[in-house]
Write a structure and sequence with these properties.
With 721 residues, this protein is an alpha/beta fold. Helix content is 59%, strand content 10%. The strands form 4 sheets. It has a 7-stranded parallel β-barrel. Strands 4-5-7-6 form a 4-stranded antiparallel β-sheet, with helices on both faces. Helix 1 runs antiparallel to helix 16 (402-428), helix 10 (229-243) runs parallel beside helix 11 (267-274) and helix 18 packs parallel to helix 23 (546-559).
């Protein structure tokens, strides 16, 4: 295929991709509408935190009243404005056997139980004693303990089926559990031992909810794989009937109902979560950056026999700041983190812990300082939310109606993405381009037929992202290195005014084409799962390497300089730039992702940008990629040295970063567009200023002497071709 026919086919492919993008505008518009419709933010505090704080404040036997006072203060954190809503949700944890002992029950090891029998002068019958058992006893003479026995005995029996039996010793009644005390109560030999939970103290929290009618109780359930599926379902329904929570949050590394033996979710438990109770549907609180076993299957599960929607449609994302971070960070920093979570990551539940440093002295003065700080955080967060157009209330899930457009829209977007990938490959070789198209189409069709839709979407999104980051820069490189265009550049005036105009135009056009291609990629993954980060884009590190490799390979083929690299005199300036760019690329690839390390000053710089601009542009774009891209274009037009174009290998960093921005589907689309716009604007200004300064330095140092050797070799190779 000659060059003219190739260019014609490339234009057709880009036209098809553009048409697919236009068809997907309703999908992207629906996504924006979905992200802006949900404006309620739920503020959550932890019951265990509040209990510990009440004890530090000297609650003692009056701890319940002190807790109530703390909760009241956090509900109305601003005395000057009692109408301002503060926290509206209390997260409650299940009790363990150790908690029962604090409430008055007798929880004994086999040795302690033996000593009790001796003290009571009771016969030490063999059927009562078990060397590897734990005993839970209640005094039937005490009405409170009698009530506790009725409440907790069935829960203990259901918690360890086949391991329990009831017993009566004098006026004591209770349960024998055929598991060691060090297995289920406490074990000093095991650091950070976490005893298994039994169940929720429903009467306690029902009385608290009566005291605070507007306070939502948020149960935190732990998985109990030893329980039968029927008992787990009954326990779950009892909790839902008692509190009607809008979401449920799981404690521990596994979701409630996960069967570790079979590595799957128990279906009846999922259906019990999804069915309406008291007219209330329930979803899951998805804790940010905390992956729990079984969560993916739980929120996506849909029974073939039930008409209930999957749990994901009623789920919301939750952001938490740890106790230690609450103690270490200042109030403005904490509030800023919460606001960024809401505005930039679609978070609708904020989990506010009590400030507590690991080694702090537990005094009343320290407790009062912690409470003051927590109250300040709640009050300022509420005020900032209202200023940003949000309100404290029950978190409402995103409207899942975006799924209506998705089935057809994402297929067409995948066609457009395949066109982009084919166009990029075709510039290397028409045969390679055809192979990419055929193999890509077959792979997507095969995965669809095998009901592997998720894999097809992920694979096509990754392919489109690579193509989107490469396409515009490759197109620009092809244009600049064409013989006709190079002759035009050689004949043009070297006046800097015209050069700047050309450079700015080429940079802006390249960036806009990249953004359009990135939006096509975003249309492929504009699914509810990606918005909630149940699924996420895979291959971020590869996205920061492959486009640079492709641009480098294309330039080497295009300029036919492979053998001339070893024949030409060494250009020290170009070599230094190449080494610097390579180092930057390696550094960026190692620090991409959520857990990337940052430089010592970088967090403060990011925080400053957040506070100043509202939406922080990405430093990869406006400090590295875009300025280098602009400098490359300027020095190519100014000194007409084709070897300068190899700096586009680093300049494409900005294009890659823009595409990466749109892979974060949990970030609102409007925020991504604003962030990208800031990056282009500031990158252009910094690039112009930095390039002008560098050009002046080159003039002063005499490094702008024309080096004809590389161009002579290039010209000779072009003539031979």
């Amino acid at each position: 295929m000659n060059r003219l026919n190739l260019e014609r086919w490339l234009k057709w492919m880009l036209a098809v991709a553009t048409l697919m993008l236009l068809i997907n505008v309703p999908v992207l518009a629906q996504r924006v509408q979905m992200e802006q419709a949900s404006r309620n933010v739920q503020l959550v505090i932890d019951d265990a935190d509040i209990t510990a704080l009440a004890l530090m404040l000297g609650g003692g036997e009056n701890v319940r009243q002190v807790k109530a006072d703390i909760i009241e203060r956090l509900i109305h954190p601003n005395p000057d404005n009692p109408q301002q809503q503060g926290i509206n949700t209390l997260a409650v944890n299940e009790d363990t056997l150790k908690d029962l002992a604090k409430k008055g029950a007798m929880v004994l090891s086999a040795a302690d139980f033996n000593r009790l029998l001796v003290a009571m002068d009771e016969p030490q019958e063999k059927d009562l004693l078990n060397g590897n058992a734990t005993y839970v006893l209640f005094d039937t003479r005490d009405p409170v303990q009698t009530s506790m026995a009725k409440q907790w005995t069935p829960l203990i029996q259901a918690r360890w089926p086949g391991f329990t039996s009831t017993l009566q010793v004098g006026t004591l009644s209770g349960v024998r559990i055929n598991l060691g005390y060090d297995q289920i109560v406490e074990n000093p030999a095991v650091p950070y031992f976490v005893p298994p939970a039994i169940g929720l103290d429903i009467p306690l929290y029902q009385s608290l909810q009566k005291q605070f009618p507007d306070l939502t109780i948020l149960p935190r359930l732990t998985n109990k794989p030893e329980m039968t599926e029927e008992d787990q379902v009954a326990y779950l329904r009892k909790i839902r009937e008692a509190f009607s929570p809008n979401v449920m949050v799981f404690a521990g590394s596994e979701v409630y109902g996960f069967n570790p033996a079979k590595n799957r979710i128990r279906p009846k438990i999922v259906e019990a979560m999804g069915e309406p109770v008291n007219g209330q549907m329930m979803g899951i609180g998805l804790i940010e950056n905390f992956n729990q076993k079984g969560l993916d299957s739980l929120v996506k599960y849909r029974s073939s026999e039930s008409q209930l929607p999957p749990l994901k449609v009623n789920s919301v994302r939750l952001h938490s700041i740890s106790l230690a971070e609450m103690a270490a960070d200042s109030v403005p920093v904490i509030v800023s983190r919460f606001m960024l979570a809401v505005q930039e990551r679609n978070i609708r539940m904020l989990y506010i812990h009590t400030p507590s440093a690991p080694l702090e002295v537990k005094t009343i003065d320290q407790a009062e300082r912690n409470l003051d700080k927590m109250t300040n955080v709640v009050g300022r967060t509420t005020a900032n939310l209202e200023q940003a157009g949000y309100q404290v209330g029950t978190a409402s899930p995103f409207d899942a109606s975006i799924e209506r457009f998705y089935p057809i829209g994402h297929l067409l977007a995948m066609v457009g993405g395949l066109m982009l990938a084919t166009a990029v490959a075709s510039r290397f070789s028409p045969v390679l381009g055809g192979s990419v198209f055929v193999l890509g189409a077959l792979a997507v069709a095969g995965l669809k037929l095998l009901d592997k839709d998720g894999l097809a979407v992920s694979g096509m999104a990754f392919t489109t992202a690579i193509a989107a980051a490469t396409l515009a820069t490759q197109w620009l490189a092809a244009r600049l290195t064409s013989p006709r265009e190079h002759e035009r550049i050689q004949m043009r005036s070297t006046r800097t005014g015209k050069i700047w105009k050309t450079v700015i135009g080429q940079f802006l056009v390249t960036s806009l084409v990249t953004v359009a291609a990135a939006l096509l990629m975003a249309a492929i993954i504009s699914q509810y799962n990606f918005s909630l980060k149940i699924d996420e884009f895979r291959g971020v590190r590869a996205l920061y390497l492959l486009p640079s490799v492709l641009i480098a390979g294309y330039l080497m083929i295009r300029l036919r300089v492979v053998k001339h690299i070893f024949l030409s005199p060494l250009n020290v300036a170009i070599l230094i730039c190449f080494v610097v760019v390579s180092g930057v690329m390696i550094y960026l690839s190692t620090r991409s992702g959520n857990n990337a390390a940052t430089l010592p000053f970088e967090e403060q710089f990011r925080s400053l940008l957040d506070r100043t601009l509202g939406v922080r542009p990405r430093t990869k774009e406006f400090l590295i990629g875009h300025p280098l891209f602009i400098a490359t274009l300027y020095f190519y037009h100014r000194y007409r040295n084709k070897s300068t174009l190899f700096l586009l290998v680093g300049g494409v960093i900005g294009q890659m970063s823009m595409v990466s921005t749109f892979t974060h589907l949990h970030t609102p689309l409007i925020i991504s567009l604003i962030r990208t716009g800031y990056g282009i604007g500031f990158g252009l200004l910094i690039g112009l200023a930095g390039t002008w300064l560098l050009d002046k330095l080159i003039g002063l140092w005499g490094l702008k002497r024309r080096r004809p050797s590389m161009n002579e070799h290039l010209a000779a190779s072009e003539k031979r071709a």
